[in-house]
Amino acid sequence: MFKLNLFNRPQRPEPEVLAHWGRNAECWCGSGKKYKNCHMAKDHPPK
Length: 47
Ligand SMILES: [Zn+2]
Prior knowledge:
Layout: H1 15-18, H2 40-43
The protein binds zinc ion.
The site of zinc ion has 5 residues, from loops.
């Protein structure tokens, strides 16, 4: 048996939460990486 993991995925926090997420804090996705090395570029794409 394999387990579907569809419901255990980390959800992206609200934009106002992301705006204050520390760049050196652990990423919200649970990867264990620093936010700046993980989802920061995806959450805040350069214009
Ligand atoms: Zn991440």
